[in-house]
Design goal:
The protein is mainly β and about 120 residues long. Helix content is about 0%, strand content about 50%. The chain contains no helices and 10 strands. The radius of gyration is 13 Å and the shape is globular. It starts with a strand and ends with a strand.
């Protein structure tokens, strides 16, 4: 069974930066697209970013230009670098393995909480 362990969240002031990590076990991430999602106070889980097997990336409109997704296939890890954080970025962040059509393939991990507040 594929499992995700997200880490790197915390409390940060508006305008600050954080980098999240996701360690994946049970699957070779180099064979799949990987994505980050977040679930905020509205309790909806929304798409944040995706990186495919060719390292092409996609981003949600609200994070374009501020967030960067990357992967280290040798370590089987995925990262989300977040800059210029805003209070609206406050959420629990999750990573996910995706099929070529964007379908999410696995149960969600525990996520990592990011709180942006002064």
């Amino acid at each position: 069974q594929v499992q995700f362990v997200e880490s790197g969240g915390g409390l940060v002031q508006p305008g600050g930066s954080l980098t999240l990590s996701c360690v994946v076990s049970g699957s070779d991430v180099s064979r799949y697209a990987m994505a980050w999602y977040r679930q905020g106070l509205d309790n909806k889980r929304n798409f944040v970013a995706q990186i495919n097997i060719f390292a092409a990336t996609k981003y949600g409109e609200s994070v374009k230009g501020r967030f960067t997704i990357s992967r280290d296939n040798a370590k089987n890890e995925v990262y989300l670098e977040m800059r210029d954080l805003k209070p609206d970025d406050t959420a629990v962040y999750y990573c996910m393995r995706q099929a070529i059509d964007g379908t999410n393939l696995d149960p969600w991990g525990q996520g990592t909480l990011v709180t942006v507040s002064s």
